[in-house]
TrEMBL record:
Protein name per its UniProtKB record: DUF58 domain-containing protein
InterPro entries reported in the protein's UniProt record: DUF58, vWFA_dom_sf
Every DUF58 domain range: 59-280
Top-level taxon of the source organism: Bacteria
Length: 315
């Protein structure tokens, strides 16, 4: 378990506050959202490279040894007696869309903080990091009952608007557990909205447990990945990955109480295999569409987790 050294000692494990999310603006300066490498946090996970901020043509100059041949300016070269290469400059104010899942299945944890809390803190950190980088920030915040769309805007007010909408989302108050058979509809609806609002060249970050990530949702997200860089942050609780040692355990929520028996070795193996198959399916999907993937546990420090995955930013 990672100590949450970047969070105040009074931080709630079951909810977030606007004040608490604003406090993450400082630690977010150390997260390198513009790095070229996504470092995997789990063995065998997909490791790839961000294209980074988009590039736009600046000018042409004579070709020099070491220049990338793919950047030769053939039109200028055809009119000259020597080869010319294109020079590019970074596009400013790249759109960054941060999508975060607040469905009822996310309001759960056996260690650390609720998945929804970990996801929200990660979303706030990434939002502040985008602001510090000078990018335009927007996103989608969704739950079982509604989703909010925030168009990309520039400046501190965009980050403040995002964390306000995140902390005040009505699905924080939703105490009704949605059956597993019904969790896919809100996710698919949110992915449809993401497909509609994501513009080519954007950096899109989706933070969820991906429960109910059906073919419809997959089709929408793969459509986004065709013209934008996509990173998925897969949030999970240790109990979802592995049953506890043999014994009787009591689980309590606001609405109900239940007991589980983990003495059966076969049941523990089946449980683990079901989790592994789901993760392998998500990993294969991400590889197919060149989507970056990183895991996050409810007992992770979100700052350390993001720095380890995306790199630390030098000041």
């Amino acid at each position: 378990m990672v100590r949450h050294d970047h969070l105040p000692t009074d931080a709630s494990p079951v909810s977030v506050s606007q004040k608490g999310l604003i406090r993450l603006a400082g630690p977010a300066r150390g997260i390198a959202l513009d790095v070229l490498r996504v470092n995997s946090l789990q063995a065998g996970a997909y490791v790839s490279h961000f294209k980074g901020r988009g590039m736009e043509f600046d000018e042409s100059r004579p070709y020099q040894p070491g220049d990338d041949p793919r950047n030769i300016d053939w039109r200028v070269t055809a009119r000259s007696s020597e080869a010319y290469t294109k020079l590019f400059r970074e596009e400013r104010e790249r759109p960054v869309l941060v999508m975060v899942d607040l469905r009822s299945n996310m309001h759960f944890a056996t260690r650390g903080s609720f998945k929804s809390v970990s996801a929200s803190r990660a979303a706030a950190l990434l939002s502040w990091s985008a602001h510090h980088r000078g990018d335009r920030l927007g996103g989608i915040i969704f739950g079982d009952t509604m989703h909010r769309e925030l168009k990309p805007r520039l400046g501190r007010q965009a980050a403040l608007r995002y964390v306000h909408q995140l902390a005040s989302h009505p699905d924080w108050a939703n105490k009704v557990q949605v059956p597993d058979s019904d969790v896919s509809a809100p996710l698919s609806s949110a992915m449809s909205a993401l497909r509609r609002v994501a513009r080519p060249g954007s950096l899109v970050i989706v933070i969820s447990d991906f429960l109910g990530f059906d073919r419809s949702a997959q089709a929408y997200l793969s459509g986004v990945a065709r013209h934008s860089e996509v990173l998925v942050v897969n949030v999970s609780d240790p109990l979802e990955r592995e049953l506890p040692p043999p014994g009787h355990y009591r689980l309590v929520s606001a609405e109900r109480e239940m007991s589980i028996d983990t003495y059966s070795r076969a049941a523990r193996v089946d449980y683990h295999d079901a989790w592994a198959q789901r993760q392998e399916a998500l990993e294969a999907y991400c590889q197919r569409y060149r989507i970056h993937q990183m895991p996050m546990s409810t007992d992770d420090d979100p700052v350390e987790c993001l720095q380890q995955a995306l790199g630390r930013r030098s000041h």
